[in-house]
Write a structure and sequence with these properties.
Number of strands: 7
Distance between the termini: 42 Å
CATH architecture of one domain: 3-Layer(aba) Sandwich
Strand order of the largest sheet: 3-2-1-4-5-7-6
Keywords: Methyltransferase, Transferase
Largest sheet: 7 strands, mixed
Protein name: Methyltransferase domain-containing protein
CATH topology of one domain: Rossmann fold
Organism: Streptomyces lutosisoli
Strand content: 15-25%
Number of helices: 8
GO molecular function: methyltransferase activity
Pfam families: Methyltransf_25
Helix content: 25-40%
Radius of gyration: 18 Å
């Protein structure tokens, strides 16, 4: 939950009434003290599951924010690690954090180079330069109709055989308080966006595994699901959290 160093209710309200880009510029100095940052347990689980699949040469953290996923890539990539995000404020905090805290283990004298790039994930400013693309906690900012274009962009920046990897959690059951909390949050956001401009796109229940698999396949990926056993299993035996591994084939990106 929020820590004393996190944003005030007034600051959160100002963010929620802004655009996604400006809202995160406002939140950036306190973002790492909020529950919106991906937990270390998820980052560590994905990093551990990816390690046997590497090493990789060049990695991209899509919608990198303040760079939590960059630390994961630094442990996996030999040559370069790049973060791309639409928010200049989030990128600035990430750069400053790296300067203040020093590089994570894996980024050293002989470790990968690091770059922070301001850009829109729907129009990535790269060619096919990466072996690995990861993303953590960003997909709620994209409407379902934007997924085909988003995944085509990721496909276009991966080298043949490159992988697009991200965690996805199982949706809560209707008997869970979290089900109703997320339902209520999405309903509030829809009302807010119907009444206020600019819109702030953040919907927790819109990123569904079946839709994601279909759109990834359409974009030219071979899709594999891997359980992250650290988070346990539901009563029906299905994992509470999976890692999606989408591998680019040798063909061109669909247009």
């Amino acid at each position: 939950m929020f820590t004393p160093q996190g944003p005030t209710l007034r600051e959160l309200a100002a963010q929620a009434l802004s655009s996604v880009e400006h809202g995160y510029d406002l939140l950036a100095p306190k973002f790492d003290h909020t529950p919106f940052r991906t937990p270390d347990s998820v980052l560590d689980a994905v990093g551990g599951a990816l390690r046997p699949m590497g090493p990789f040469e060049s990695g991209l953290d899509l919608c990198c924010g303040t760079g939590a996923g960059m630390d994961v890539l630094a442990m996996l990539c030999d040559e370069s690690v790049t973060g791309v995000d639409i928010s200049a404020g989030m990128l600035a905090v990430g750069r400053e954090r790296l300067r203040a805290d020093g590089p994570p283990s894996g980024i050293g004298e002989r470790g990968p180079s690091v770059a922070w790039v301001r850009g829109d994930a729907r129009a990535l400013p790269f060619g096919p330069a990466f072996d690995l693309v990861v993303s953590f906690g960003a997909f709620g900012h994209f409407l379902p109709r934007e997924l085909p274009g988003l995944f085509a962009q990721v496909h276009s920046v991966l080298r043949p055989g490159g992988r697009f990897v991200f965690p996805i959690t199982a949706p809560p059951r209707p008997s869970s308080p979290w089900y109703w909390a997320l339902l209520g949050f999405d309903a509030v956001m829809r009302v807010r966006n119907a009444l206020w401009r600019p819109p702030f796109v953040m919907y927790y229940r819109a990123f569904r595994l079946g839709d994601v698999q279909r759109e990834l396949a359409w974009a030219g990926f071979a899709v594999e699901l891997r359980a992250l056993p650290e988070f346990g299993y539901r009563r029906d035996g299905s994992p509470r959290c999976r890692m999606v591994v989408a591998t680019r084939g040798g063909g061109a990106t669909p247009v």
